[in-house]
Design goal:
Chain A is an all-beta fold. Chain A has no helices and 11 strands. Helices cover 0% and strands 60% of the residues of chain A. In chain B, a hairpin with an 8-residue loop joins β9 and β10. The chains are: A mainly beta, B mainly beta.
Chain lengths: 113, 113
């Protein structure tokens, strides 16, 4: 079953604006990751935040994690047309000696030049 | 040039035929994964393998089979028992010991008519 749920499902902004995407999940996690997918392509890892971290930055990306609310947000600042893609959160869990990711349905971001 | 390759990019089959999707990685990663993605949806885990000659069912393994005879290769067979095989299939790998990040191939789009 899919644990993560992204919100909104679709987002359209002007180039230069900030884009915020949210992710909620249901069970306890070891970490949460964000991935990007260009149309018809594979996913690319963006950033990982561990369950004991609250905020993490990478370039124009800022991720927050609130384990008490079981939610995370991804902020892309000063968006560019090249940021147009679908963004997925994935929650990571270890159990029985294995590690798996559970993906949400994604937010489709359109950045208008 | 390191990475994950999937072939072919597009695959067409008639209903009732088995088909095998290729996934090869030269990253020396221990773990490999197969996901299915339907339009507008997130990724669902089909099978995963932590080490050679061992693999585990994911959330939607029915109608699929895999093998892991070599570390570099993790082929997926979509059998005629899979009720709705048309989808985008993504293979991923992970360096199990040191990282939680998954690296994805470009995907194979399978159409069964």
């Amino acid at each position: 079953s899919q644990q993560g749920e992204e919100d909104p499902q679709a987002l359209s902004i002007q180039e230069g604006e900030n884009a915020t995407m949210n992710c909620s999940y249901k069970t306890s996690i070891n970490n949460l990751q964000w991935y990007r997918q260009n149309s018809g392509r594979g996913l690319v890892h963006l950033i990982l935040i561990r369950s004991n971290e609250r905020e993490k930055h990478s370039g124009r990306l800022r991720v927050t994690l609130d384990t008490s609310k079981k939610s995370s947000s991804l902020l892309i600042t000063a968006s560019r047309a090249a940021d147009t893609a679908s963004y997925f959160c994935a929650t990571g869990n270890s159990g029985a000696g294995s590690y798996q990711l559970t993906f949400g349905k994604g937010t489709k971001l359109s950045v208008i030049p | 040039d390191g990475g994950i390759t999937q072939s072919p990019k597009y695959l067409f089959r008639k209903e009732g035929q088995n088909v095998t999707l290729s996934c090869e990685q030269n990253l020396n990663h221990d773990a490999m994964y197969w996901y299915r993605q339907d339009p507008g949806q997130g990724l669902r885990l089909i099978y995963y393998s932590q080490i050679v000659n061992d693999f585990q069912k994911g959330d939607i393994a029915e109608g699929y089979s895999v093998s892991r005879e070599k570390k570099e290769s993790f082929p997926l067979t979509v059998t005629s028992a899979q009720k709705n095989p048309t989808a985008f299939y993504l293979c991923a790998s992970r360096q199990a010991i040191s990282s939680y990040e998954q690296y994805f191939g470009p995907g194979t789009r399978l159409t069964v008519t």
